[in-house]
Amino acid sequence: MKKIKLGVIPGDGVGVEIMPYATQVLDVIAQVHGGLKFEHSWYPWSCEYYLEHGEMMPKDGLDQLSQHDAIFLGAVGNPNLVADHTSLWGLLINIRRGFKQTLNIRHAKQLRGITPMVINPNGFDLIVVRENSEGEYSEVGGRIHSGEDEVVVQNAVFTRKATERAMRYAFELAKTRKGHVTSATKSNGIVFSMPFWDEVFDQVGKDYPDVEKRSAHIDALAAFLVSKPSEFDIIVASNLFGDILTDISAAVMGSIGIGPAANLNVDGSYPSMFEPVHGSAPDIVGKGIANPIGQIWTGKMMLDHFGETELATQLLNIVEDVTEAGIKTPDVGGKATTSEVTDEIVSRIKQLT
Ligand code: ATP
Ligand code: MG
After folding, report:
1. Which atom of ligand 1 has the smallest separation from the CA of 84?
2. 275 lines ligand 1 (CB under 6 A)
3. By its UniProt entry, which PANTHER family does this protein fall under (predicted)?
4. 284 CB less than 6 Å from ligand 1?
5. Are residue 38 and residue 158 in the same domain, yes or no?
6. Alpha-carbon dihedral angle through residues 214, 179, 103, 137, given to the nearest 10 degrees
């Protein structure tokens, strides 16, 4: 029996509502598999936890999480209770950095039964590989003087190691898919980091002669991602560019509520973390209509991560069968509740046996 130990953090808002459904789906998948079992430990770390304890997670929180094979996260943040930067840094960034989750991977695909932002006769299916540890989101810089003499400097940090790691991951992934990688650059405007980024892309690309290399400036790329997403397969991007492109690619699918993401620890020294693209969605909390697909698809990425690719593919197929049958939450034009969508997915998984 293959056991996968999961640290489950439902988090805030719709994260709390969706998580029991998503873990139920994983448990049913494991039953169908026969030789797989998820063992979950639940952690209540959230904004409510912060109000009680003055911190988003306990001091030994990372130690506790390190006992698991992966972390399954819901959504973090409740701006009515705790400032966003406090909740974000106290939990999400703390885990990403502490566990060296240096890559953020997000999958976007035109799902059957869900109307995308722009109708694409050929559909689309792309993955953004985002460098997750450095780049533009560095803490290097400063402010001096004040008033009209004020000067602010914000540096971006690009190391060869982290840049190569992102590129290599993207090329490896491309080999298993359509075979082309697009690099998000801006070397016509950013004169140090982006020419370096381009160089590393070319250098690493030499090891992958069968993978086609494409490069596009971030501004044009952002526009193309909306108008012609079918042109892309793998996109590799820096931290800031990747952050922007992945929100676009989730929106292009039709709802932010369906996008999945993985924060990967590439060398396996710590657990990786799987979380949907969407946030805590305070505007729909308590209505029972949150879309569970983002979290369930995130679970699918986790199955892939643990080598269960066949079941993972079947799971996403079932999700699409369900949306195609019109059983959808309101954000994607349906009338179903979170539980109705999940029940349908679960009953179709059971039919696999
Ligand atoms: P965060 O700061 O946590 O990223 P946010 O305010 O940027 O939060 P979301 O919380 O994702 O973003 O909400 C953006 C919009 O998308 C809201 O209108 C919300 O209701 C909707 N939304 C987000 N997640 C879902 C979901 N799972 N199902 C349906 N709608 C959702
Ligand atoms: Mg957000």
Report:
1. 2
2. no
3. D-MALATE DEHYDROGENASE [DECARBOXYLATING]
4. yes
5. no
6. 10
Task: Count the Cβ atoms, other than its own, within 10 Å of residue 186.
Answer: 21
Residue 324 covered by a domain: yes
Closest-CA residue, ligand 1 atom 9, reads 279
In the block, residue with structure tokens 């199955």: 303
Rounded to the nearest angstrom, the distance between the alpha carbon of 258 and the centre of ligand 2 is: 14
Any atom of ligand 1 within 6 Å of the Cβ of 338: no
29 and 121 in a common domain: no
d(CA 78, CA 277): 16
| Single residue among 207, 227, 253 that ends a domain in this structure | 253
The whole-model pTM stands at 0.94
**C-beta 331 within 6 A of ligand 1:** yes
What is the percentage of the chain residues whose pLDDT exceeds 70? 100
Q: What pLDDT shows up at residue 121? A: 84
Count: domains in the chain: 2
56 CA → ligand 2 middle, Å:
18
DSSP assignment string, 252-281: HHT-GGG-EEEEE-TTSSS-EEEEESS---
Q: Is 88 in the pocket of ligand 1 (CB under 6 A)?
A: no
Residues 324 and 235 in one domain: no
Q: Is 9 helix (H, G, I), strand (E, B) or coil?
A: strand
